[in-house]
Every structure is written in C-alpha cells, then in structure tokens.
Amino acid sequence: MLGEYQDKMRIAGIPIRKLSGIGFVSVDKSTGLHNNWNGSFSIDLPEKFGKQEMLNSNELKIYLCQELIKTCEGCDDQGDKWNEYIQKAEKALGFSLISPKGNVIEIEEGGGTNNR
C-alpha cells in the first residue's frame, strides 16, 4: 500500500523524501513524522493502526499520505506548499485527503476523524 502511494505521488510531481521505516507507538508517545537527521524520515503510527481491522482502513491511508507529504521540503507546517501537494496527491491517488470543507482530516486517537 505505502509503496504504491509513494510511487503515484512521485509520478504526480510530489518530491517525497526517503522514508526509513514505519512503527507503532503507544498512546503516550509522539506519533507522526520524525526527521532522522540523516536524510530520511520515519513515521510513528498510533497504536490503534496495528489492529487487524485498521490495517486497510481509509484512516490509515489518509494518515500515511498526509505524513508522506510532510517529508517534502517546506511542507512540515501544513502551509501553502503542503496544500498544493495534497491536491496533486488526491488527483493521483483517487481519494480525498481533506474534508469537503477544505480542512485537514485529522485522525483522532479513538479511531474517528476530526476536521479542522
């Protein structure tokens, strides 16, 4: 799944940087994208995504894609460049990464989504 998304985003012109790994962390740990300071990034997923029923969920797809885009230069603040790449990614992937209101779809710890 992840490799396919990376390939499609790169073909769409989104300069995703090297990803060194993905892991699961407990609720009290920091999740999201982490710069490894060696030219690569890693994604720490909330523990809930390790459950069998979540492994192919839309929430996981959205979370991974949003984090992949944050690896792009100038996108860690979810500003204009990030929004530009979100739109390109949605076209390339065929699914929405933002809410119909134009807000970021955030993944809540309990399993639902939260639009901001």
Task: Report the uncertain regions.
Answer: 109-116
* Overall number of strands: 5
The tally of domains stands at 1
Global shape? globular
Mean pLDDT figure: 83
β-strand percent reads 15-25%
Termini gap: 26 Å
**Continuous helix count:** 3
| Rg over alpha carbons | 13 Å
How are the strands of the biggest sheet laid out side by side? 1-3-2
Q: Report the biggest beta sheet as strand number plus sense, adding barrel if it closes.
A: 3 strands, mixed
Structural class: alpha+beta
Overall description:
This protein has 116 residues and is of the alpha+beta class. It has one domain (2-115). 32% of the residues lie in helices and 20% in strands. The protein contains 3 helices and 5 strands; from the N terminus they run H-E-E-E-H-H-E-E. The strands form 2 sheets. It has a 3-stranded mixed β-sheet, with helices on one face. Strands 4-5 form a two-stranded antiparallel ribbon. 18% of the residues are buried. Mean pLDDT is 83; it is low at 109-116.
Distinctive features:
3 helices, disordered C terminus, three-stranded mixed beta sheet, alpha+beta, globular, single chain, 116 residues, two-stranded antiparallel sheet
Please write out the topology.
Layout: H1 2-11, E1 19-25, E2 32-35, E3 41-46, H2 58-70, H3 80-93, E4 105-107, E5 113-115
Parallel strand pairs: 1-3
Antiparallel strand pairs: 2-3, 4-5
Helix pairs in contact: 1-3, 2-3
